[in-house]
């Protein structure tokens, strides 16, 4: 009796049960891949919100505040006449409550940029992220002797100081309140560390010195997309004019 011959299939056709360890590893890699994809989608969504949508919301909210204040909204030609410089001491508002909006800032150098509201305080959650430019509490009010110190975002949330590095010595910085215009001129710029609060002293960079002049200081984060340093612009008061008389020549045309 002849024993049947057993023929084995080719080696490449043989099947074997996958090892349990390899199956677990493949499953873990799949889960990790899905988590990384999800994380990437969430990160992309956060960047879109942070770098684009906060600007959309910030611009809208700040424009509404400017309208509510009754302030001119941009550097445009107006037909209400030229507000001539006035002699004597300028009117000075009392310092308002925290987060109250009381003035606007318009910078002719920033062509196309609207007037931005100025509100009391520099807290991010209640002022800078929602209202635009913040006024350092305890510093001079518009037209007051001392240093009118302001802070604003350079990116995100409407980025009111986005173009701060474009400013040049001699450029006008025009502040509006209900009763008066205050025109300042840029005198210098500098980059400092966040701890260098001397820049917002009553006499900029001279802590402890009593002021006899009227200054303005703008501060924002530096470099772009970083809070490592502060970019600072200093200016000095030039003149004031009554809002009832028209618009300062610096904003016309």
TrEMBL record:
UniProt entry keywords in alphabetical sequence: Hydrolase, Membrane, Transmembrane, Transmembrane helix
Entry's transmembrane regions: 24-52
Superkingdom of the source species: Bacteria
CDD domains, per the entry: Sortase_E
The UniProt record lists the keyword Transmembrane helix: yes
Listed Gene3D superfamilies: Sortase (2.40.260.10)
Protein name in the entry: Class E sortase
Annotated source species: Cellulomonas wangsupingiae
